[in-house]
Amino acid sequence: MTMERMHTKEEKLQAFGRLLDVMDRLREECPWDRKQTNDSLRANTIEETYELCDALIRDDQNEICKELGDVLLHIVFYGRIGEEKQQFDIADICNKLCDKLIFRHPHVYGEAVAKDAEAVLESWEQIKLKEKDGNKTVLSGVPSALPSLIKAYRIQDKARNVGFDWEDKQDVWGKVREELDEFEAELRKEDKKKSEQELGDFLFAVINAARLYKLNPDNALEMTNQKFIRRFNYIEQHSIRIGKPLKDMTLEEMDALWNEAKALENDHNE
Average pLDDT, whole number, for the chain? Predict the structure, then answer.
């Protein structure tokens, strides 16, 4: 996707106003839009957010633009519903956001100094705790409904922002090995409950290591998911082509096809 030219601020405001006009008309004239509530939209909002994440992972600019529009639609929709209930409207949403951003950036809008991004992050959590109606504790800002892997990363990152972190990132590997040993010990005892607990500790330590080395574990795992899907699909397509169901193939046959798919990927990436 390539823009012919950058839009002016006035054109951007006009486009946003057009979206509000379309939303108003749909809410008034479309039977489906008219019946929606915060509750009925919530699941769709989650789905649209994940679709945006998929587009971002693929770095598909056309899809990113499209999916951002879908997410924006939901924000405008919630704003319209809030307006109908006389609770808030889209202007309140924008103004609250602007107020929050200004308050959290005293190095831009105030007298504070932040020489780099790390300095900004160090003060971020303390600033949030000072906000009216803000987080009461450092970790209270982590949504309970976040997927566990992302939640672990965010918990660790927030703790880091107030100084609770490894002084030397290389020290984390001792913790990773310790948790792996404890996990293996419980597996040998065949204690399922304790094994699961130790597995959680091990995964938490691995995620912590990824964070310390500035790697995103969710992105990393998703790349591996996609790689597995591609290679497994290659095996399945071969089985269809030769008329032999996967369940009738030997592990050696499937492994050979897996390596074929891997080799093809490597050739493509070179």
Answer: 91
Residue type, 207: I
Tell me, what amino acid is at 113?
A: V
Q: What separation in angstroms does the CA of 228 have from each of 20, 83, 87, 235, 252?
A: 42, 46, 47, 11, 17
How many angstroms separate the Cα of 135 from the Cα of each of 48, 84, 125, 201?
A: 27, 28, 9, 26
DSSP code, position 114: -
**CA 19 to each of CA 7, 163, 217, 221: distance values in angstroms, whole numbers, following the listed order:** 16, 44, 36, 36
Q: How far apart are CA 256 and CA 251, in angstroms?
A: 9
pLDDT for residue 132: 61
Q: 7: which DSSP letter?
A: P
Kindly state the tokens that stand for 261: 């798919």
User: Number of helices and strands (H, E) in the chain?
Assistant: 12, 0
Q: Which of 31, 74, 30, 28 is nearest to 49 (CA)?
A: 74
The rounded distance, in Å, linking the Cα atoms of 70 and 85 is: 23
Number of Cβ within a 10 Å radius of residue 205: 21
Q: At 214, which amino acid appears?
A: K
Average pLDDT for 134-152: 84
Reading the block at residue 90, the tokens are 């889209």
Q: How large a percentage of the chain has pLDDT more than 90?
A: 70
**Beta carbons of 103 and 127 less than 8 angstroms apart:** yes
